[in-house]
């Protein structure tokens, strides 16, 4: 039992036990190990600061193509379609005939009005003849009046001579130079001339009355003439009105364009557009050599859009082609209450007809107003499975906190941060690791 080998083994075990106990009882053994492990597992990261930057704002919105002008052509008269002269896809010039409508009852009305005008023209001619006749009567009456006045002057002269002779004869008789018989003869002659003067005076008055009557007849004939002319003019205006209605029987293109729809067949009964049940239009005409691009801009960006702002347009139908560049031609200036968007329009020449009304695409409007925005590199932003964005914020003692953010403008390289972090805060740049709230990191000096 006291074999030297056994004693040596016991001694060695004793030493080892002391060593183990000594190591286990040392007060600095566990903290030292923990500090070493902790130092080994601290992740080194690079950070970027949230930087306020003046940026050119853009807004990406859906865009749709519309004809520059689009007209639904309807009939303004009721009748049967007599002839079609245009069909879908046909290009027509302004004023070209597209269809004719048969309205025989109006043609009959026109013939009746034309006959009435001919009768009224004859009435005018008869009234003119009445004027001519009355004018001739005036001239005749005036001639008779002149003749009567001439006779009156002659009668007055004769009466004056007879009166003078009577006075001289009466003086001679009183002196006894002549007999009374001579005075009687002269008196008789004087009285005869007086009677003739009175008769001629009556003729003058009668002639004057005839002149007045003839002049009244002239005035009456002229009034008849004016009435006949007015009646003729009224009837002619009725004919003009009917001709306007008859012109509606020909459907014409109001502008140059393409027939994009046709809803009528030869022989169809069409009704005046104002009538109930007039239905669809006869044709739809669209001008597409120039088109309008309409873009609904949301309320947040609407105040920043100005006429002349640059627009970049892309269409799924032309993925292999370069984007189309245009400018804002006009803005509505008000929001649609139902969508809270403002309509913006751009005009684009379309000589080849490549852009068709109804096409949809995307429009990026480069707003002329620059704004200061908190920007971060796109690589520094993470996303949850639900799609919500967040960043890892590193505070001054190098502790990580997770901050959900709201994103704004995205130019492909940088993203605007609307909320969640403030300017000057630092966040972890691109990194493969995931971090937790309160986790310590080691920030590398940039």
TrEMBL record:
Coiled-coil stretches: 131-165, 204-238
The organism's place on the tree of life at top rank: Bacteria
Record keyword Transport present: yes
Every CusB-like beta-barrel domain range: 293-366
Residue stretches making up the Multidrug resistance protein MdtA-like barrel-sandwich hybrid domain: 71-274
Keyword Flavoprotein applies: no
InterPro entries: Beta-barrel_RND_2, MdtA-like_BSH, MdtA-like_C, RND_pump_MFP
Record's signal peptide: none
Keywords in alphabetical order: Coiled coil, Transport
Localisation per UniProt entry: Cell envelope
All copies of domain Multidrug resistance protein MdtA-like C-terminal permuted SH3, residue ranges: 376-428
Cited Pfam families: Beta-barrel_RND_2, BSH_RND, RND-MFP_C
Family: Belongs to the membrane fusion protein (MFP) (TC 8.A.1) family.
PANTHER family, alphabetized: MULTIDRUG RESISTANCE PROTEIN MDTA (PTHR30469), RAGD PROTEIN (PTHR30469:SF37)
Protein name stated in the entry: Efflux RND transporter periplasmic adaptor subunit
Species annotation: Novipirellula rosea
């Amino acid at each position: 039992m006291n074999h030297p080998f056994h004693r040596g083994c016991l001694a060695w075990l004793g030493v080892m036990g002391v060593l183990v106990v000594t190591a286990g009882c040392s007060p600095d053994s566990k903290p030292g190990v923990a500090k070493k492990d902790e130092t080994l597992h601290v992740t080194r990261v690079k950070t970027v600061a949230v930087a306020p930057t003046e940026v050119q704002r853009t807004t990406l919105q859906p865009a749709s193509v519309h004809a520059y002008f689009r007209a639904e052509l309807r009939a303004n008269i009721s009748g049967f379609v007599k002839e079609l002269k245009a069909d879908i896809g046909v290009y027509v010039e302004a004023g070209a005939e597209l269809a004719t409508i048969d309205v025989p009852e109006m043609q009959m009305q026109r013939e009746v009005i034309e006959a009435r005008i001919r009768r009224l023209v004859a009435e005018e001619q008869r009234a003119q003849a009445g004027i001519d006749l009355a004018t001739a009567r005036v001239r005749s009456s005036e001639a008779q009046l002149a003749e009567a006045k001439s006779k009156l002057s002659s009668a007055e002269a004769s009466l004056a001579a007879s009166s003078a002779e009577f006075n001289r004869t009466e003086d001679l008789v009183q002196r006894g130079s002549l007999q009374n018989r001579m005075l009687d003869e002269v008196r008789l002659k004087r009285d005869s001339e007086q009677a003739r003067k009175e008769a001629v005076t009556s003729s003058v008055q009668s002639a004057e009355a005839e002149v007045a009557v003839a002049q009244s007849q002239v005035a009456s004939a002229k009034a008849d003439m004016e009435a006949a002319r007015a009646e003729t003019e009224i009837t002619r205006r009725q004919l003009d009105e009917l001709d306007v209605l008859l012109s509606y029987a020909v459907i014409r293109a109001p502008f140059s364009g393409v027939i994009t729809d046709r809803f009528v067949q030869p022989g169809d009964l069409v009704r005046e557009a104002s009538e109930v049940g007039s239905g669809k239009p006869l044709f739809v005409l669209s001008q597409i050599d120039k088109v309008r691009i309409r873009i609904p801009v949301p309320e947040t960006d609407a105040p920043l859009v100005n006429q002349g702002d640059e627009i970049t347009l892309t269409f799924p139908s032309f993925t292999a082609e370069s984007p189309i560049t245009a400018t804002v031609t006009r803005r509505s200036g008000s929001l649609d209450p139902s969508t809270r968007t403002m309509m913006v329009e751009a005009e684009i020449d379309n000589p080849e007809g490549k852009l068709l009304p109804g096409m949809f695409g995307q429009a990026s409007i480069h707003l002329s107003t620059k704004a200061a925005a908190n920007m971060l590199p796109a690589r520094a932003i993470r996303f949850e499975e639900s799609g919500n964005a967040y960043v890892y914020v590193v505070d001054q003692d190098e502790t990580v906190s997770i901050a959900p953010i709201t994103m704004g403008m995205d130019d492909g390289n940088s993203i605007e941060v609307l909320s969640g972090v403030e300017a000057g805060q630092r966040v972890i740049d691109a990194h493969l690791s995931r971090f937790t709230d309160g986790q310590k990191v080691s920030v590398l000096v940039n």
